Amino acid sequence: MKKLEVFGATRLKGQIKISGSKNASLPILAATLLSNKKISLANLPRVKDIETMLLLLKSLGSIIEKNKKITTIKNNKQVKTFASYGLVKTMRAGILVLGPLLAKFGKAKVSLPGGCAIGTRPINIHLKALSKLGVKFKIIQGYVHANAPKGLIGANIRFPKISVGATENLIIASCLAKGKTVLSNCAIEPEIKDLVNFLNKMGCKVKWISKRTIKIIGKAKPNALSYQVMPDRIEAGTYLIAAALTEGKLKILGIDPQIINTEIKVLKKIGAKIIIKKKEIIIEGNKKIKNINIKTSPYPGFPTDLQAQMMVLLCKANKKSYIKEEIFENRFMHVSELNRMGAKIFTSGNKAIIEGNIKFQAAELMATDLRASVSLILAALASKGKSVINRIYHLDRGYEDIEKKLKKVGAKIKRVN
Fold first, then answer.
1. In terms of domains, do 51 and 160 share one?
2. Strands 412-416 and 180-184
């Protein structure tokens, strides 16, 4: 089992180039199933979840060619409609192939998804919405058996709650449905905007008609295209927090500051000095970190995917801070490990109280999920001595070249077997 050794008390200085967005790449890859033409994608991040999605597409019959910068996907042969548990078990995004398979072939058998153990992540919102397009489904032995006997038929659908995955699945599926579909109470994350942009360039007709409402005219005839995936805002936010935590100075390259405006405001409030340019952000950490209260919420609110990292930073704040987690019900599993490093964090339900004014101590640690993994690296960077982080396979699901990037800006970090 691979581990990370991190030697702490280092100020990070230099520049970091942000990789392509994992959370934008996954639905875009699923959407390539709609087309029989050649699709070339640039800026896919080299992370485990993307490798898994590409293997899933291959298992469905996609022909995939990769070079250093471009991934080409062709679906000109008959695509299969069975997505196995073996491939879907490690990531929740596997369920995103359900919509395009139903749209194209009128049937699909897809395993219920897996991923990090941070919540139940029910797919009932996906299934109820798809049923309004004419899909009938049963769940048998952990698989969704779905079919649309008359094909997908456009409908007016209002999501009962904001769901990123359900919004993505329904947008993709509706592109080949008969007639018009209107989706309301949609998620509006930048990654969804990137998916819509991709679909429109592929020849689909998807239009935002209000802040959270999308109209899709179906029966699209997808064409060939080349497309570059957007940069990863969660990766950018993680490195911004790392700079603030270590009193470092980093230049974050290749990111649109507008898509992380909320995170930038929060970091400014806690005392970081930030300069914003067109495609870069310069951040300098302050010795004094101010306390703040945060709640996670759908975009444009504070992202749940940066909650663990922000919690580490608030351990160094001058006073008590509060975090309320409103997206996932089990996303405080990093708390016990941080407390082992000297943090004073108390949780009750979906609320965490962070005492602040602590000095992290190096320790042997266990990662429990993707974002918790990186939060432990951040805490280790702010500690004196050597920390060892176990179960780092979670980390490899979502951060490209994290050791290499951190080493370039002064971190002492290495991977060991």
1. yes
2. unpaired
**How far apart are alpha carbons 417 and 327 in whole angstroms?**
35
| Helix 307-314 with 233-245: angle, nearest 10 deg | 10
In 3D space, the residue among 306, 343, 341 whose CA is nearest the CA of residue 323 turns out to be: 306
* Number of domains making up the chain: 2
- Asked whether residue 251 falls in the same domain as residue 170, the answer is no
With a CB cutoff of 8 Å and minimum separation 6, the contacts of 355 are 315, 320, 343, 344, 345, 346
315 is catalytic: no
Question: Is residue 272 located within the same domain as residue 334?
Answer: yes
Domain range for 244: 3-19+231-416
CA–CA distances in Å: residue 409 to residues 10, 190, 361, 381:
10, 28, 22, 12
Q: What angle do CA 207, 70, 37 make, to 5 degrees?
A: 55
Compute the distance between CA of residue 341 and CA of residue 339 in angstroms, rounded to an integer.
5
The DSSP code for 47 is S
Confidence (pTM): 0.96
Whole-angstrom distance, CA of residue 87 vs CA of residue 365: 28
Q: Which residue in 116, 186, 204, 315 is the catalytic one?
A: 116
Tokens of 331: 């996303």
Task: Give tens-digit pLDDT for 240-288.
Answer: 999 999 999 999 999 999 999 999 999 999 999 999 999 999 999 999 9
CATH number of the domain that residue 290 is part of: 3.65.10.10
Question: At which of 177, 212, 228 does a domain end?
Answer: 228
One domain for residues 331 and 363: yes
Q: What is the DSSP string of 220-262?
A: -----EEEEPPB-HHHHHHHHHHHHHTT-EEEEES--GGGGHH
Question: How far from chain centre, in Å, is Cα 374?
Answer: 13
Answer yes or no: are the C-beta atoms of 39 and 227 closer than 8 Å.
yes
